[in-house]
Amino acid sequence: YNSHSGYIPVSVPARMGMTKPPPSPYRQLQLRCKAAGLPANKSFDVLSKQLAEYEASQQNGARCATSPDLYTAGGETADGTGHLIPGPYGPEWRPDYPVTYAPLFPLLSSLLQFSPSAQQWSDLYWWFFGYPGYLWPWNVIYFTICYLTYTYTNPEISRCTEYRFDWIAELYVRNLGLLWMIAGGWHALLYTFKAQGTMRKHDPRWQATNSDRFVFGDQVYDNVFWSCVSGVGTWTAFEAHALHSWANGTAEMIYTDWWSSPWYSICWLLLIPIWREFHFYVGHRALHWKPIYPYIHYLHHKNDNPGPWSGLAMHPIEHIIYFSVVLIHFVVPSHPLHFFFNSQHTALTPAGGHSGFEGPVINGTIPAGSYFHYLHHRYYDFNYGEATIPLDKLFGTFKDGSPDGYGSKSKK
């Protein structure tokens, strides 16, 4: 009612033929996030930030699709090292080639059938001695680190007859320094200084911030926390137990003279990364069992866009399972170098494998990344192992990453 004009028409409910009032700004933001396939049950500020990042990545994708300096005809990147394909957060980098397994086990299969080819022998040679290959650079680098730390930073064995805070703390600080050198180094290179930009980056996003998925609301802080507190703590505990056992003479399978059995020592050293891969597949597959996944392994899979610190970001129980790979040295004759190479390899290699980039990076000079394992983070039910032992192919969980390739037709 208007005192000057008398009664005038007013709005009525929509069910009587009139329009509804517009949704609130927060509701509008939720609807836009849902339309983009983004989480919509967060605060207004978080939704605004994630939508802005998504829209920026979509604009970058459109620019890549039309700009010849970034994206050439046929979808190839400008440096000819892969393809950009549409993704939920913008263009995702993919290699030109599908994921394949190392030539070791195909050759062994052919040997059992007495039919190895010259090409298989050549492939094995270059896989083993080539660059990048099985030996060089990373396994040689990790063994060098192991030898130096074992020789110069291990506590005297006579101090380890009892569990004491002093020598265990020395181990912890040593291991913490190694992890910061490797994981922190990869993070500084690729994420702090962004020396590679987004070239050959699997996912166009950087590490998450202001996210309630992670401790402290930040993916990097979360990953550093779990890696340094639980990860390095568990790693150190296994090493401390080994040193205590050797000091008290209860580790009967340990021998201290490397050259008493040189061929055995060298062969066992070369097999340790393969043993690690087998152990990793078995433990990893078990952690994906539905009754326990939501309580343990879920923490690692929060990192759908992994970075160097994501590799060792695990639940404490998963850390125990993961580092139990070193227990084989209590039942198989081993030199202390075997044990420490195994433990350090287990702790340090995930940083490069979870870098989020596919090497070689930095002008094509440094091998990095594992597209095989990135596909596991991307699709969850595939590629539980790694690319040496074909266990995923044997058990039907292998995905090679190509649109029409192995695993692309799976119903999973």
Protein architecture, described:
This protein is an all-alpha fold and 412 residues long. It is built from 13 helices and two strands. A two-stranded antiparallel ribbon has the order 1-2. It is globular and about 85 Å long. Residues 11-18 and 60-74 have low confidence and may be disordered.
* C-alpha end-to-end distance: 63 Å
Strand order of the largest sheet: 1-2
Rounded radius of gyration (Å): 26 Å
Describe the oligomeric state of these chains in a short phrase.
single chain
Sheet having the most strands: 2 strands, antiparallel
Morphology: globular
Q: H/E series, N to C?
A: HHEEHHHHHHHHHHH
Strand % is under 5%
| Count of helical regions | 13
E-strand count: 2
Q: Structural class, please?
A: mainly alpha
Q: What is the typical, i.e. mean, pLDDT?
A: 87
